[in-house]
Amino acid sequence: MPKKKPSPDIYNLAAETLGASPARCVVIEDSKIGLAAGKAAGMRVVVTESYYTGGEDFAEADVVFKEIGDNFGIDDLTTPGSFWLNPPTGRTMQEEVCEEDPGADECRVYED
Fold first, then answer.
1. Is 30 helix (H, G, I), strand (E, B) or coil?
2. Which long-range contacts (CB under 8 A, 24 or more apart) does 66-74 make?
3. Sequence-distant (≥ 6) Cβ neighbours of residue 4 within 8 angstroms
4. CA contacts within 13 A on the Cβ side of 89
5. Residue 111 DSSP symbol
6. What's the pLDDT score for residue 1?
7. Measured between alpha carbons, how far is residue 57 from residues 34, 49, 54, 87, 110 in Å?
8. What does the alpha-carbon distance between residue 50 and residue 40 come to, in Å, rounded to a whole number?
9. How many CA atoms lie within 13 A of 88 on its CB side?
10. Which of 2, 22, 36, 74 fits a disulfide with 42 by CB distance 3.0 to 4.6 angstroms?
11. Are 67 and 48 a contacting pair, CB within 8 Å?
12. What is the pLDDT of residues 53-65, one digit of tens each?
């Protein structure tokens, strides 16, 4: 990558490579720089604090964990739950995507 984090380039490339809308992606990071990159890419960000980053300000994160362990699973990333600091809105993912990017493939109406 020509630019390192906090540039969102790496996350934009990942979404593009997977053919996924950034609004449907979840980033797991451990630093404020990584958090900034994920948010700049338009993605939800889960932060796991590390020994080195435990004192950083993660207020912009969607959720912050001391560690991810047995009480956390992939379904938790896509289901509104009590651990979300900035919980999903209750709208469908398609509604969120279309609000952010009305031109996204998911939002197009095709006529016969």
1. coil
2. 68/28
3. none
4. 10
5. -
6. 79
7. 12, 10, 9, 18, 45
8. 22
9. 21
10. 22
11. yes
12. 888 899 999 888 8
Query: What domains does the chain contain, in order, with CATH numbers?
Result: 9-86 (3.40.50.1000)
**Residue 108, token pair as written in the block:** 């197009």
From residue 43, give the alpha-carbon distance in Å to each of 15, 19, 26, 38, 67: 10, 14, 6, 6, 20
Say how far apart CA 45 and CA 103 lie, in whole Å.
24
Sequence length of the chain is: 112
Ranked by mean pLDDT, which of 70-74, 85-89, 101-105 comes out on top?
A: 101-105
Instruction: State the burial class of residue 56 (Cβ atoms within 10 Å of its Cβ: 0-12, 13-18, 19+).
Output: middle
> What would the two tokens of residue 54 be?
């435990």
How far is 81 from 88, CA to CA, in rounded Å?
9
Q: What is the pLDDT of residues 90-107, one digit of tens each?
A: 555 566 667 777 777 666
